[in-house]
From TrEMBL:
Residues 4-141 form the HTH marR-type domain. Pfam families: MarR_2 (PF12802). It comes from the Bacteria. The lineage of its organism: Bacteria, Bacillati, Actinomycetota, Actinomycetes, Kitasatosporales. InterPro entries: ArsR-like_HTH, HTH_MarR-typ, MarR/SlyA-like, WH-like_DNA-bd_sf, WH_DNA-bd_sf. SMART domains: HTH_MARR. This is MarR family transcriptional regulator. One of its GO terms (molecular function) is DNA-binding transcription factor activity. One of its GO terms (biological process) is response to stress.
Length: 155
């Protein structure tokens, strides 16, 4: 049991280093693009959506309040990454749509930055990649639950 306890402690430390490294990486990308780090992650999430989304969906994706989403979309619109458009079905609704040319430019940056990651993953077996994918999926779900818990708890 002492071995497992040591492994869990090591995993915890590496997880903290990983999260800090990613936060710092995200900040560097945001600085490079002259965006806020949350804006970069919002663009990342919007790129995974099948099409334009409502501001409410942006709030769901990011966990931000509607007021914060409005400011975020304002910033992204000023930077040329998104547009607001009326919903063709319900003209009262406004949809947030990514600008394909700007997302293509962002995609080229990600491709360049991801090349070393791809090389790192080449060293993993298919089973290891499947494990990592499952781990990441579970980590995303747990993170979302923890965010919800913290917000319900309040400051």
């Amino acid at each position: 049991m002492a071995h497992r306890k040591r492994l869990l402690a090591e995993l915890s430390g590496e997880a903290r280093r990983h999260m800090a490294a990613y936060a710092l990486f995200n900040q560097a990308v945001a600085d490079h693009l002259r965006l806020h780090p949350t804006d970069v992650q919002c663009l990342n999430l919007l790129d995974l959506e099948p099409g334009p989304v409502t501001a409410g969906r942006v709030a769901e994706l990011t966990g931000l309040t509607t007021g914060s989403v409005t400011r975020l979309v304002d910033r992204l619109e000023r930077a040329g990454y998104v547009t607001r458009e009326r919903d063709a079905v319900d003209r009262r609704r406004v949809l947030v749509a990514v600008v394909p040319e700007r997302m293509a430019a962002l995609g080229r940056l990600w491709e360049r930055l991801n090349a070393p990651w791809a090389a790192m993953f080449d060293a993993y077996t298919d089973d290891q990649l499947a494990f990592l994918t499952t781990h990441m999926r579970h980590a995303v779900e747990l993170s979302a639950a923890q965010v919800e818990h913290l917000r319900a708890e309040g400051p």
